[in-house]
Amino acid sequence: MRSGFTLLELSVSLVLVGLMAGLTMPRYVAWRDRIAVEAAASTAVSLLATARHAALRRAAVTAVRFDTGTAEVLVHSRSDTIERRPLGEVHGVRLTATRDSIAYGPAGLGYGAANTRLVMTRGAAAETVTVSRLGRARR
Fold first, then answer.
1. Could you state, in chain order, the average pLDDT of each consecutive group of 10 residues for the chain (139 residues)?
2. Superfamily of chain region 7-138
3. Strands, E assignment, 3-134
């Protein structure tokens, strides 16, 4: 007796594996996009909080710039770069912003921050971060 599988059995099992992969792939891609967008939004909120705290700590104006071309967020005070996060490279998201920058004054209040919206998108997933008039960020 020979042990093994026939060509027909191998073909049927490969077709079943292909069908199962084809059915689960769209859900996996959507899940991966949603996770990347949520991570990028959390990073953006964290950077805005970092800028606000740096303004309070240094008693100096701290600015946050949004580069929508490369999906990069840059926090700087005077000539010092405090943090730089390339959201496009790290999370693979696109960034859309209603303003190109906002600033936090020495008291931690936002200048030019009123109703600033940052929208991170990847595939069909999207997340919006809104910055209030006082400079507080929320998702």
1. 82 91 84 96 96 94 95 94 95 95 92 89 96 88
2. minor pseudopilin epsh domain (3.55.40.10)
3. 62-67, 72-77, 80-86, 94-97, 101-104, 110-111, 116-122, 125-131
